[in-house]
Design goal:
The chain is an alpha/beta fold. The protein contains twelve helices and eight strands. It has helices at 36-41, 67-80, 93-104, 124-140, 142-153, 156-161, 163-174, 178-189, 195-198, 218-226, 243-246, 248-263, and strands at 2-4, 10-16, 21-25, 47-51, 86-91, 109-115, 205-210, 232-236. The structure holds D-malate.
C-alpha cells in the first residue's frame, strides 16, 4: 500500500494480522521486506505494520532525512490508519526512530521492542566513518555497499551456515535508492543522544540482541535494557545484527511471549 502523508510524502507499507498494533521499523539500509518473517509469524499476535522509511523501499526518496522526520512520518501513518497507539519495534536505526517516537509522540507508544540498537549518539570517529561510507556510496554505488555491509550485518553463524540468507540480505540492501542510503547516514550522524531518555520510558519494553552482533555488541544492548525501568532482555544465539532476519522463529517467539504477557492477546 502507498499512503500520501499530510505533508505530501508518499510512504509505502504493508500489514498482516490482527490484535494490538505492532509497528515494525527497519534499519539502515534496509526496507520493510526485512520483516517478512515477522509479518508472517506474528500475525496471530498483532496487527503488524511494516513501513518503508522515506528514502527506502517504495517510499518516496525526498528529504528531510532526519530521525525526527522518520518518527513524525510514522506518527502520521498511524493517524492515517486510525491507530491510536502501537508497540514500536525498531531494528538498529529503527531503534533510534523508536526513541524519537517516544520523545515526540509518547501517547502513541504502547510498548517498545528494541533490537540491535543503542542509545548513545555518534562519537566524532563514528561520524567520520559515516562520512567515509557516504563517499563510498557516491563513488562505488549501492551494490558495492550492500556486498560490504552484508558481511558485518549478519553473524558468523549466518555467514557460515545460512548462505542464502546472507545473499537475500545483500540483494535487499542493493535495491535501496542512493538518496535514501546517504540520507540515512546523515540522519544517524545528526541524531540526538537518547541516553537520558531511557529512564523516562515507562511502557513495557523488550530488548533482543544477537549474540554475534559485531555492530552493537550484546553486552551493550544488555546495558541498554538495564537502563530502561522494568525492561526484559533476550539474547539470541547464532544471530548477528539483524536477528529478526537471521533467527526469525526465535525472534518471533520472544516478541509473541512479550505481547502475550503485556497485552494478553493471541
Ligand atoms: C543499522 O543497522 O540501522 C545501522 O547499522 C545502524 C548504525 O549504523 O548505527
Amino acid at each position: 500500500m502507498i499512503t500520501t502523508l499530510p505533508g505530501g510524502t508518499r510512504l509505502a507499507w504493508e500489514e498482516s494480522g490482527s490484535g494490538p498494533a505492532l509497528l515494525l521499523v527497519h534499519g539502515w539500509p534496509h526496507d520493510r521486506t526485512l520483516w517478512h518473517a515477522q509479518l508472517n509469524g506474528l500475525a496471530t499476535h498483532a496487527r503488524c505494520i511494516a513501513p518503508d522509511l522515506r528514502g527506502f523501499g517504495e517510499s518516496e526518496a525526498v528529504g528531510p532525512f532526519t530521525i525526527e522526520q522518520y518518527a513524525d512520518d510514522l506518527a502520521a501513518l498511524l493517524d492515517e490508519l486510525a491507530i491510536s497507539e502501537a508497540f514500536v519495534c525498531g531494528l538498529s536505526m529503527g531503534g533510534y526512530v523508536a526513541f524519537a517516537m517516544w520523545r515526540r509522540h509518547r501517547a502513541r507508544v504502547r510498548g517498545l521492542v528494541l533490537t540491535g540498537t543503542r542509545a548513545a549518539a555518534d562519537t566524532p570517529e563514528q561520524r567520520a566513518g559515516r562520512q567515509r561510507l557516504v563517499e563510498f556510496v557516491q563513488r562505488s554505488g549501492v551494490s558495492a555497499l550492500a556486498a560490504q555491509q552484508m558481511e558485518r550485518m549478519v553473524g558468523a553463524t549466518t555467514l557460515e551456515s545460512r548462505e542464502t540468507l546472507g545473499v537475500a540480505l545483500r540483494d535487499l540492501m542493493a535495491a535501496a535508492p542512493a538518496e535514501g542510503v546517504i540520507g540515512g547516514q546523515h540522519a544517524m550522524m545528526a541524531r540526538a543522544d537518547s541516553t537520558a531518555t531511557l529512564a523516562t520510558i515507562d511502557v513495557p519494553t523488550l530488548v533482543i540482541a544477537g549474540a554475534e552482533d559485531t555492530i552493537i555488541p550484546a553486552d551493550e544492548q544488555h546495558a541498554l535494557a538495564d537502563a530502561i525501568p522494568g525492561a526484559r532482555f533476550v539474547e539470541l544465539a547464532g544471530a548477528g545484527h539483524v536477528s529478526p532476519f537471521e533467527r526469525p522463529s526465535a525472534f518471533n517467539l520472544a516478541v509473541g511471549e512479550f505481547l502475550e504477557a503485556v497485552h494478553g492477546h493471541g
